Each structure stands twice: as C-alpha cells, then as structure tokens.
C-alpha cells in the first residue's frame, strides 16, 4: 500500500526572502525576519554586512514589474512600521548621494513628515524635484496616513 502524499501548501508569490528574493518556505518566517531585521537568508543562510541590503531588496520588490499591487502595499506597510531614530535617518540620507538609495533609506524613518523634511534639508535642487515627483507618483499610498499634517498635505494637491 502506498502512503498518501501530502500536497505542499501553496505559498503566495509575494513572500520572498528580503535578501535573496527567493520564495520563502515559511511565510511567517518572512514577516519575522523583517520585524527583527535579521540579515540572514533562511534558504541560503547568507549574511549581509549591514541591514541596508534588506531595504534595498524590499525596494526592488516594491518597484519591480513582477510585484503585484497587494505585495507592494504590504511591503510599504512593513517599511512604514519600522522605527528608526531621526538622527540615524539624517546620517543615512547624508551618506547616500544617489536619489534611489536615499529614498530607500528615508523609507526607514518612523513617519513620513520627518522623511520629507530630511529630503528637503539634505538634498540638492534636482534631487528635491525628483523626490517631489516620486512623492506625487505614490501619493495614493501615503495620502491616507494619519501622521501627516494638513500643511504637508497642502504641498501635494490631489
């Protein structure tokens, strides 16, 4: 008699390892890894030199053409929920000259208002214009945030 084989559980495609971007076997592990900011891939056990790579990987997931809108919204929620001191935010933004890296690092701050202020203070004119355009493009996602002041919302009319 042949024993019945268990069919493997179907894992949603947006549960990717934040380091290797390989499909994670345990979706709960993905959330745990993001929550604890552990810089180790569950599949390959590869270690990162710093935690910045985790957010670079998340940025690729957010901006990737293959990522579905639900996955992008969930990743934005994870990024918005992370608590990073404002001094650390200023240090990261001032260290990166590239707009994409700066915006990825700015996403790590605890609220959108301090993110926008850091971009305004630490960037050149062209970078400010590009950041303004990026914020306009993604306004659907952050506009409903309760942490925004009416003064800030007035800068980005719908």
TrEMBL record:
UniProt KW Transferase keyword: yes
Domain of life: Eukaryota
Keyword Transferase: yes
Pathway: Protein modification; protein ubiquitination
Residue ranges that the Swiss-Prot or TrEMBL entry lists as coiled coil: none
Catalytic activity as recorded in UniProt: S-ubiquitinyl-[E2 ubiquitin-conjugating enzyme]-L-cysteine + [acceptor protein]-L-lysine = [E2 ubiquitin-conjugating enzyme]-L-cysteine + N(6)-ubiquitinyl-[acceptor protein]-L-lysine
GO biological process: protein ubiquitination
Gene Ontology terms for molecular function: ubiquitin protein ligase activity
UniProt keyword terms in alphabetical order: Transferase, Ubl conjugation pathway
E.C. no: 2.3.2.27
Main function: Functions as an E3 ubiquitin ligase.
Protein name: U-box domain-containing protein
Source organism of this protein record: Triticum turgidum subsp. durum
């Amino acid at each position: 008699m042949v024993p019945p084989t268990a069919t493997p559980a179907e894992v949603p495609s947006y549960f990717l390892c934040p380091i290797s971007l390989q499909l994670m076997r345990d979706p709960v592990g993905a959330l745990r890894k993001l929550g604890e900011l552990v810089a180790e891939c569950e599949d390959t056990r590869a270690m990162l030199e710093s935690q910045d790579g985790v957010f670079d990987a998340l940025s690729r997931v957010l901006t990737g053409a293959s990522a579905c809108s639900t996955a992008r919204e969930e990743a934005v929620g994870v990024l918005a929920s992370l608590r990073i001191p404002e001094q650390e935010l200023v240090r990261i933004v001032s260290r990166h000259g590239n707009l994409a890296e700066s915006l990825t690092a700015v996403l790590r701050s605890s609220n959108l208002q301090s993110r926008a202020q850091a971009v305004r203070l630490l960037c050149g004119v062209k970078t400010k214009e590009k950041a303004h355009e990026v914020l306009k493009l993604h306004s659907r996602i952050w506009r409903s945030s309760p942490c925004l002041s009416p003064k800030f919302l007035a800068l980005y009319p719908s």
